[in-house]
Amino acid sequence: MNHRFRRTPFSRQVHVCFALVCILSVVLSGCVAAQPGAAPAAEDESIELTWLDVCAPITTPITDALVEKFEATHPNVKVTIECSQGDYAEGIFAKAAAGNLPDVMFSADLFTVPFVENGVLVNLEALSEAEGANTFEDIYPNILGLGQVVGTPGTYMIPASWDSVQMYYNKDMFAAAGAPMPTDDWSWDDLISACQTIQEANENVDCISIGGSSGWDWWAYFIPWIVGYGGKPVSDDFKTSTFSSPESLAGIQAYVDLWTQYDVMMPLGADIPGGGQGCFESQNCATFFHIPGFMKTFREQITDFDWDVAVTPSHPIAHATGMGTFGYGITKDSAHPDLAWELIKVLASKEIQGQILRGYGGMPFLKSMADDPIFDELEPPPANVKAFIRGGGVGIFPPMGYPSKCGSLYAGLINQTIRTALEESIRGAKTVEQAFVDADAEIQACLDTAE
Predict the structure, then answer these.
(1) How far apart are CA 419 and CA 405, in angstroms?
(2) 8 Å CB contact between 282 and 265
(3) What is the pLDDT of residues 22-42, one digit of tens each?
(4) pTM of the entire structure?
(5) Is residue 339 within 8 Å of residue 47, measured between CB atoms?
(6) Are 78 and 71 a contacting pair, CB within 8 Å?
């Protein structure tokens, strides 16, 4: 490979952003989006494209593949990848204010709204349409939506993978306890029953690895419970907070009951090395709920038990699970947006999506690959790898139209208010209804004063 790298340490904070939860940096304003369409360079002109990435283990194979393919057909273009340092969002806004953003940059679902609202990223649909193509037609709409903003036309990020939260489970532990093996049509009642069987046979095991010091308030875990009981966290116009509606309260109560009634979750505050992932790998937890990118890690690190995956269990009214992803966009400061588009658009190709799947780094987001023979070529574990395809169909993304002053489910007032209410409910400081009536009041006060 002949592309050049400046390998500076990537920010672990950003790596956690798309894998778990992250506190967004303060969003600066005043950046104006440039329109794509700069004149293409002459074929014999030497050009450099700059690319800012987090250079994490889950992203580097993807950037390597894209750059290698691009440079093979663009010999006059060199791609320089720089690895981010420090707080990612803060650094991006500083570069945007100075007008020196790279051509291509890492993004993620939690960054879409602030980056688009502040003009950091350009509309990729305009670049696709300019070449007479429809790059996005074959992408599942629920994952494509993570690169879009309600009320703002366009798509601003090509996702890397169809990342939805499904259930990894320890097959040996289920079998040894005499619990039934999970299936893709299980309900949460089925899992709770199996968990009780497992914990009766294993005194020191917490069946579900959600809890500990962080992650239990991740929207991708608890918002599906609200949706699964017929509720929603906010009205469609983002003017009314609805965590305390009867349907939302029923879903939140059922989520809290996993700790308070059934005792199948990791206790809050439990100090488990590696958190939920470490609990699963050390066999102190029987299940782990997360995105497909963990397949590669578990294949490499788990050698003492057999594991598989299943679709996240269903709720009484709706079947829902969280989804989120990282991806790449083109910035307002790109000197060569057309070439930058040539570089990243192949992420939406069968070749690259198949390469990601073969490396157990993610699920193809192309609808045309749902029954691709590549799935039959993969060596287990996991044997049930298509659970991520089936489960992706019920994936939901977080409401992303909150006024910026109020924050979001990722950061700011809303994030902290909901975390506090959940913790009060789980620890018994307040009833679920008390905690979320109070939370709604605090969020509503902000919504009422937002422009």
Answers:
(1) 18
(2) no
(3) 323 323 233 333 344 444 555
(4) 0.87
(5) yes
(6) yes
Q: Is the pLDDT of residue 194 over 50?
A: yes
9 has pLDDT over 50: no
Q: What is the DSSP letter of 152?
A: B
- The DSSP-derived string for 44-73 is TS-EEEEEEE---TTTHHHHHHHHHHHHHH
Helix (H) or strand (E) holding 290: strand 285-290
* Contact of 97 with 31, CB cutoff 8 Å: yes
Cβ neighbours of 70 (radius 10 Å): 20
Q: Give dist(CA 439, CA 444) in Å, integer.
A: 8
Token couple for 356: 């990601």
Segment 127-142, tens digit of pLDDT = 999 999 999 999 999 8
Same domain, 97 and 17: yes
What is the DSSP pairing of strand 321-322 with strand 104-108? unpaired
- Interstrand relation of 395-396 and 321-322 (parallel, antiparallel or unpaired): parallel
Tokens, residue 329: 């966009």
Rounded Cα distance, 184 and 384, in Å: 9
Amino acid at 217: D
Residue 208, in any domain of the structure? yes
Residue with tokens 């952003």: 17
Q: What is the span of the domain harbouring residue 216?
A: 166-322+404-449
Phi and psi at residue 310, to the nearest 5°: -145, 160
Q: Count other Cβ atoms within 10 Å, centred on residue 247.
A: 16
User: 247: which residues sit within 8 A by CB, 6+ positions away?
Assistant: 226, 229, 230, 231, 232, 317
- As a whole number of Å, the end-to-end CA separation of the chain is 50
CB-CB neighbours of 176 under 10 Å: 13
Residue 310 covered by a domain: yes
For residue 257, give both structure tokens.
Answer: 């009951």
DSSP assigned state of 239 = -
Element spanning 446, H or E: helix 432-449
What CATH number corresponds to the domain at position 198?
A: 3.40.190.10
Task: Please name the residue ranges forming H helices in 283-373.
Answer: 294-301, 337-344, 350-358
Q: Over the range 106-139, which residues count as b (16 or more CB within 10 Å of their CB) and which as e? A: bbbbbbbbbbbebbbbbbbbbbbeeeeeebbebb
